[in-house]
Every structure is written in structure tokens, then in C-alpha cells.
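Dear support,

I submitted the protein below through the web form. The confirmation email said the job was done, but the results page showed an empty box. After a refresh the structure appeared. I'm attaching both so you can tell me whether what I see now is the final result or a partial one.
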Amino acid sequence: MTGDANAGRAAPTARPRLALALGAAGLAIGLLGVGLAWLTHQSLASLAQSAGGRVADLGAELGQSRESLAAAQAALRTQQARIEALEAKVVELNEGRAAVEEMQRELARSADDRALADAEPLLIIANQQLQLAGNVKGALVAMQAADQRLARSDKPAVATLRRAVAADMERLRALPLVDTVGLALRLDQAIASIDTLPLVTTETPRAPAAPRPREGPAGFASIAREAWLEVKSLVRIREIAPGEAVLLAPEQAYFLRENIKLRLLAARVSLLARDEASFREDMRAAQGWLARHFDARSRPVAAAAAALRQIGESPVVIALPDINASLAAARAARERR
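What the results page shows now:
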């Protein structure tokens, strides 16, 4: 019985202790929760404050980034302009280098190559002088200049070309001389002298007879006879033979002189154009008019007629040889080079 009673008293005593323990645990848990809540609140406040500062910092950094970007863009444009200037300089330097390389190649060429390169254009010029202008002297001058340049070389190809050039020059020197410039100058002198040449005039009139002194009063018959003699001395009728020159009025004499000058000018043009048929025809016409209408007894007329005759008989056109042998030799030398 005693044991049951002790057990009954021990049970109520254990329950308050358990309740206290549970209360203390709950209080501890509550305090822990409050502490955790306060710590969480502090953490959130600190985090919010930190986030606000970070946002402000990010805004400042963003502004700085924008300024840096603008500066970088300006620097980029400056660099692009410099790059374009450098590219232009590089192009200029490349062109200059190409020119220098070309000069170096030219300087590196041998004297023989330069002689061949200089001689061929001169031979082409000589051929043009022959074929287009018929200028033998000009062709000889160009060929002599080409031969002088070729004389600096002793290559076999150059020697062959010099022989061809020498042969063509000998053929040109053997041609009869056609002094086209000299003939043209003589025609100019003849044209200038036409206005001063005297035309054919009438015979020199006889001096009228001195009137005989009257011994007495003059009669009507005597006066009429003297008047008739005066009229006959003023008017003279003569018959012109078929080959005799016709006297010209002053205005007709002017046109005659102008026509002769035009004929001589046409002959000069035909001379320079190497039109022998037209040249001969114009010279014959001018000589015929000069012999028919001008005074052949005058020394200037005789000198002009002799000059026109010599000019008309001068050679105008000759068969010109070609220099194809020299040109072919120059082309062959260039191909071998």
C-alpha cells in the first residue's frame, strides 16, 4: 500500500516538471524565432541598403561607360581617318615603287637594247617621211640618226640591221633631187612679180607735125584740113593678126594678172601635193598668158618667162624606194631581244 501511495505522489510531481521543460523549450523556441526574425529583418535591411548602393554604383558606372563609349567612338573615327590616310600613302608608295622598279629595269638594260629601242622609232619616222610626204632629206636624216645609235653596239643582230640601213640610205642618196621647197619659193617670187610686169601696149605714136605758118588769111578749106588731121592723129584703126596680142582695158588687165597669179598658186599647191599633171597644166597656162599679153621685149618679162619655163620643166614626182629591209631587220632584232 505504501508503494502505491509513493507512486501516486511521484506522478503529480513529474508532470509540472515536464510542463516547465516544455514551457522553457517553447520559450526558447519563441526567443529563437524572434531572434531569427530579427536577424532576417536586419539581413534584409542590409541587403536592401547594399542593393541600393549597388544600383547607384551601377548607374554611375553606366554613365562612365557611356562617356567611355563616346570617347572610344571618337577615337575609332580618328583611327579610321588615319588608316585611310595610311592606305593612300601605301598606294602612293606602291606606285612610286613601281616607277622605281621600272627605272631600275631601264637602267639594267644593256646599251645594245637601248640602241635597238631608239633606232626602230627613227626608222618608222623615216618611212613615214618617204611614204606620206615624199621627203627624201628628212628620211635620210632620221636613218642617219638611227645608224649613229646603232654604232654603239657590236652585237650580230645590230650589225645586220646596220647593213640594211646602209643599203637603204645608199638607194635614197642615188635618187634625183626634187627641191620642192626651192620650187615653191621660186613660184612665190614669180607670183609677187606679176603686178610689176608691163603689158603689151600700142606702138609709140608719132609726134604731130608742126603747123605750117600761115602766110595769109586762113580759108575754110585749110581749117577743115587741119581739123581732119588732128582727128586722124587721135583715132587709129588697125587689123590684128590671129597670133597677135589683144590690147586690154585697165580693168581687164587687173583680172588678167589675178588669173595668172591664181594659176601659179594652183601650180604651187599641186607641187606640194605631188600632182604632176595638174602642176604641168597650170604652168603651161601661166606661161601662155605671159607670152601673149605681156611685153616680151621687157627684161623683167623675159626673166619671169625664163623662170617659169625652168620651174615647169623641173621634176616634181619621182618613184621613191621603200625601206622595208631596214624595218624588217629592226623587227627581227627586237624579237630576238
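Response: this is the final, complete result; the empty box was a page-load delay. Residues 202-210, 238-245 have pLDDT under 50 and may be disordered.
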